[in-house]
């Protein structure tokens, strides 16, 4: 922080505010370092998993500092969640979005322009930041010396290479170009960004390399056991359908967990809240069918969760999900369930918080690698052991690849200006590259999956850029590369447990495991040629 009269200003007591305002006992690893960098006025880039508590990294500095922090947030639901929880602890926070009544909007603006705003955090959409009137007002607040910093949540939306590209995010480049003398510090936060997306975030926002501090959590989480479950490819002569095969395999896996739990805690097991798990499926219909099928099992209670549910159903399921209750006799007379499972399409996402998920299953190969890392990362957010399973065979692999190709064709046929189509194609290409990483992740049998995830996700590049990571119980990401003989993940993956030959044998079950369609590569090369 700037000094006055040559004397350094006293450092704020971060712990005091953490306890007093946010009512939390202690910072999570690395959180304190990020917050200190933000408070000191650096530009900050933070890439961290959903469990990290990213929002505290701009909320706490906003509470400590004078003036206003602008928070850019892409989703109304996310914004409302954060605003409500800040209001509940008495932080002066406001939001302007599509549902803010005009009169309220005026009151907020009046406060903002008063020269000494009471509001500490103002949540807005990227689209609002594009409007002349809002920009004019921001410039005024800046001239009055009251614009403390800008926090950009879900910053990966800025990049056409990202999976959630949002054009309005690119216009956020306005901040650095226009709010200068002094420049307003920017904090960019994301859970998922490939090296290309990261470089877009830094370049487009104009983050100042000399003053930039980078932080990240490893993309592969040490407490998650990663495993790929290979399934044999389906043949018409088979007497069991692929779906049945998966259900059978999952039930076997769950029964083994049940046995282990009973052996460990005996009869008390029945008194415990059920073990929570999420199964991600591709289609709403699958979500309904699978949920009812699993729910008919004695040891399981399962519900479907997808975008087609009424908001009442969603609220009910969310409530049940976020605070698992000790078991009760079920209405159908069955004994209390051992497992509570949500079968969800990937609409099941942000804002739903259960730190005790013990397993996340991908019923078919995920469509994007970033999605996979984020979704599997919903397991074990309490830091305790958890598992990520992916069901995989080459038939499913090719089915999804075909669908991605069709999406790209649709984009091409839709027309529009050349630059518009080029942008969309770039995005499609990024999607396919991301899917190819999923394929590599699933088909590699010669490497620790934790190391593989970090490799595919670009953790090592971040390290080379000087990004700070939380201390690792395995001695940091770099050591993964230096000690190929030891298990880099402490035996928390199928490769490290079964070895390459064991894994290759299981993979052999798929039969006729061809390489991924050549056409996917060809088309990508073609796109590269024309549009990049
Ligand atoms: Zn491993």
TrEMBL record:
Residue span, Helicase C-terminal domain: 249-425
Reaction catalysed by this enzyme: Couples ATP hydrolysis with the unwinding of duplex DNA by translocating in the 3'-5' direction; ATP + H2O = ADP + phosphate + H(+)
Occurrences of domain Helicase ATP-binding (ranges): 35-211
Subcellular location: Nucleus
GO molecular function, one term: four-way junction helicase activity
PROSITE patterns, per database record: HELICASE_ATP_BIND_1, HELICASE_CTER
Principal subcellular localization: nucleus
Keywords: ATP-binding, Helicase, Hydrolase, Nucleotide-binding, Nucleus
SUPFAM superfamilies: P-loop containing nucleoside triphosphate hydrolases
GO cellular component, one term: cytoplasm
Enzyme Commission numbers on file: 5.6.2.4
GO biological process, one term: double-strand break repair via homologous recombination
Signal peptide (from-to): none
Listed PANTHER family: ATP-DEPENDENT DNA HELICASE Q5, DNA HELICASE RECQ FAMILY MEMBER
Family the entry assigns: Belongs to the helicase family. RecQ subfamily.
Protein name: ATP-dependent DNA helicase
Organism for this UniProt entry: Penicillium brasilianum
């Amino acid at each position: 922080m700037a000094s006055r009269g040559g004397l350094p200003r006293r450092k704020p007591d971060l712990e005091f505010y953490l306890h007093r305002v946010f009512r939390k006992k202690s910072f999570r690893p690395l959180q304190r370092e990020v917050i200190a960098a933000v408070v000191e006025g650096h530009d900050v880039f933070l890439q961290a998993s959903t469990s990290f508590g990213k929002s505290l990294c701009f909320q706490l500095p906003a509470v400590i500092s004078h003036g206003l922090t602008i928070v850019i947030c892409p989703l109304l639901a996310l914004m409302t969640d954060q605003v409500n929880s800040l209001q509940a602890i008495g932080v002066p926070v406001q939001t302007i979005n599509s549902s803010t009544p005009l009169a309220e909007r005026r009151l907020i603006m009046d406060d903002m322009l008063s020269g000494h705003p009471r509001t500490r955090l103002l949540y807005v959409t990227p689209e609002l930041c594009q409007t002349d009137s809002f920009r004019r007002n921001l410039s005024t607040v800046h001239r009055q010396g009251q614009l403390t910093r800008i926090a950009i949540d879900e910053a990966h939306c800025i990049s056409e290479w990202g999976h959630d590209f949002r054009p309005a995010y690119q216009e956020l480049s306005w901040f650095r170009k226009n709010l200068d003398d002094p420049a307003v510090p920017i904090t960019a936060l994301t859970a998922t960004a490939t090296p290309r997306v990261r470089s877009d975030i830094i370049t487009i926002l104009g983050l100042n390399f000399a003053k930039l501090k980078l932080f990240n959590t490893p993309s592969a989480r040490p407490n998650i056991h990663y495993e790929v479950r290979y399934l044999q490819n389906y043949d018409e002569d088979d007497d069991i359908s692929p779906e049945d095969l998966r259900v059978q395999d999952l039930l076997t896996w769950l029964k083994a967990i049940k046995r282990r739990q009973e052996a460990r805690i005996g009869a008390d097991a029945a008194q415990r809240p059920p073990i929570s798990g999420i199964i991600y499926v591709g289609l709403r219909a699958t979500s309904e069918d699978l949920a009812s099928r699993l729910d008919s099992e004695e040891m399981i209670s399962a519900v479907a969760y997808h975008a087609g549910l009424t908001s009442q159903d969603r609220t009910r399921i969310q409530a049940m999900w976020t605070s698992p209750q000790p078991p009760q006799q079920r209405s159908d007379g069955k004994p209390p369930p051992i497992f509570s499972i949500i079968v969800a399409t990937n609409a099941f996402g942000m804002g739903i918080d259960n730190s005790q998920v013990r397993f996340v299953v991908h019923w078919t190969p995920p469509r994007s690698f970033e999605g996979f890392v984020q979704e599997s990362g919903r397991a074990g957010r309490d830091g305790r052991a958890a598992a990520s399973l992916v069901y995989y065979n080459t038939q499913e692999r090719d089915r999804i690849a075909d669908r991605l190709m069709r999406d790209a064709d649709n984009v091409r046929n839709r027309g529009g200006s050349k630059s518009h189509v080029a942008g969309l194609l770039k995005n499609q290409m990024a999607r396919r590259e991301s899917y190819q990483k999923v394929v590599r992740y699933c088909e590699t049998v010669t490497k620790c999956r934790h190391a593989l995830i970090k490799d595919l996700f670009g953790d090592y590049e971040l390290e080379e850029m000087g990004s700070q990571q939380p201390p690792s119980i395995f001695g940091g990401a770099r050591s993964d590369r230096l000690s190929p003989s030891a298990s880099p993940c402490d035996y928390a993956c199928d490769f490290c447990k079964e070895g390459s030959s064991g894994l290759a044998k299981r993979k052999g079950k798929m039969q006729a495991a061809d390489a991924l369609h050549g056409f996917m590569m060809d088309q990508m090369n073609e796109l590269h040629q024309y549009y990049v």
